[in-house]
Please model this.
Amino acid sequence: MLTQRSFISSTLLFLLAFVLLAGCKIYTFNNASIDPKVKTIRLEFIDNRATYINPQLSTKLNDKLQQKIVNQTRLTRTNSDSAHYQIGGYISRYDATQTVGVSNQQASTNRLTVTVHIKFHNAVENKTE
Model:
């Protein structure tokens, strides 16, 4: 009788756990869906308007964004004003600061802060964000 009771308890516990965890989901941007109507994307150059200018930052940011879109989406790049998606923006702040360690044994660390303003236009839905 004890084994039947423990079997029922185990089954109920499993079902309860299943019901409670069924709604849990981990959200990531890796598998973001793109509307099937969207075929093209226009990437405007993201220029550096920060007071402190790192000459490589804007170029590297543009190259990495371009690579990400080409390698991880099905979208075709275009320079046309009628592209389905249009991305543009600018770097407004770039700060490299050094934080001092708490003690002589702790090394100092560098902190890099980059602020980027991005404008995203979805021509299919006529939305700008």
Observations:
- Residues 24-29 have pLDDT under 50 and may be disordered.
- The beta strands are 40-43, 47-48, 76-77, 85-99, 109-122, 127-128.
